[in-house]
Design goal:
4-stranded antiparallel sheet; alpha+beta; Chitinase A, domain 3; two-stranded antiparallel sheet
Length: 283
């Protein structure tokens, strides 16, 4: 092979290398996506902001989400830099409080998250339902009107043989049940306001109560039937038990960590109304 041929091949290889785009580096949290006034905005900042967005924004297409977050961070940084020389003591306090609030929230999230385990949920379920007595569920109907006189008038008609469902459809001001002849379906203890529940507990199936008053108006209540309610499954009450476990864990942790902190409260008597005196904050 001649020297000229070798030179041509070398030039051709070099041209191919130069024509091939360099492979992009794998992005990391430190990858700079923009620079505003000499200050870098990183991919990690975009990721943190994305986590805080409401679900409707999280579901945007990736390209729209990326550009939207980037533009928001650029605008925020430009705005922040525009007032950097105007930070007041009040601003410093506000920023410190934001940091304190974030860290406190982070601490409580960790405590609440650790409180909910399969074992803890099962133990809470057993404690509540293992020896629980069976409860009664009720199927009832009602007619809701705005006065005792109207309720009494309808009760007289029912006692005289009038159809309860027909009267409910024609007279009840509860639109949810009136169209179904006053039917409220099945409900358990604690699901109705107390006067209503007390009335149901005094009735035999098929009976209609005298007028009773609640905050919604005057009711005539008809008990259709009752049934024994079995224990709910763990899955049915999982969210309720989880919330209770989290609340208990947070309350216990707050008490423990506050009692363990080195807290000194001022003995000086301060008029609570001072909280409305904004002039005490240095501007």
């Amino acid at each position: 092979m001649s020297m000229l041929t070798k030179t041509k091949l070398s030039l051709t290889a070099l041209a191919l290398v130069l024509a091939t785009p360099l492979m992009a580096q794998e992005p990391s949290g430190d990858t700079v996506v923009a620079t505003v006034g000499g200050k870098d905005i990183t991919l990690a900042q975009m990721l943190v902001l994305r986590e805080k967005l409401p679900p409707q924004y999280q579901s945007l297409p990736d390209d729209a989400l990326y550009q939207g977050i980037l533009e928001q961070l650029i605008q925020q940084e430009a705005l922040a830099q525009s007032v950097e020389g105007e930070i007041t003591p009040k601003d410093e306090i506000a920023m410190n409080l934001e940091r304190q609030s974030y860290l406190a929230g982070k601490a409580l999230e960790e405590v609440a998250g650790a409180a909910v385990t399969d074992e803890a949920l099962q133990a809470a379920y057993d404690a509540r339902y293992a020896d629980a007595a069976p409860t009664t569920e009720y199927n009832a109907s009602h007619i809701l009107v705005d006065s005792e006189e109207k309720a009494k008038e309808l009760k007289t008609q029912i006692d005289g043989g009038a159809d309860f469902a027909k009267l409910a459809t024609e007279n009840s001001s509860d639109p949810g049940s009136a169209q179904n002849g006053g039917s409220l379906g099945w409900f358990g203890p604690g699901m109705m306001v107390k006067p209503f529940e007390d009335a149901v507990n005094t009735l035999e199936p098929g009976a209609v109560s005298n007028p009773i008053q609640t905050q919604f108006g005057w009711h005539l209540v008809k008990l259709n039937e009752t049934r024994d309610a079995g224990k709910p499954t763990l899955d049915a009450v999982r969210d309720e038990l989880a919330a209770e476990l989290q609340q208990a864990a947070v309350t216990e942790h707050l008490t423990k960590i506050t009692e363990g902190a080195n807290v000194t409260r001022s003995e000086e008597t301060i008029d609570p109304s001072v909280l409305r005196n904004d002039s005490l904050i240095a501007e």
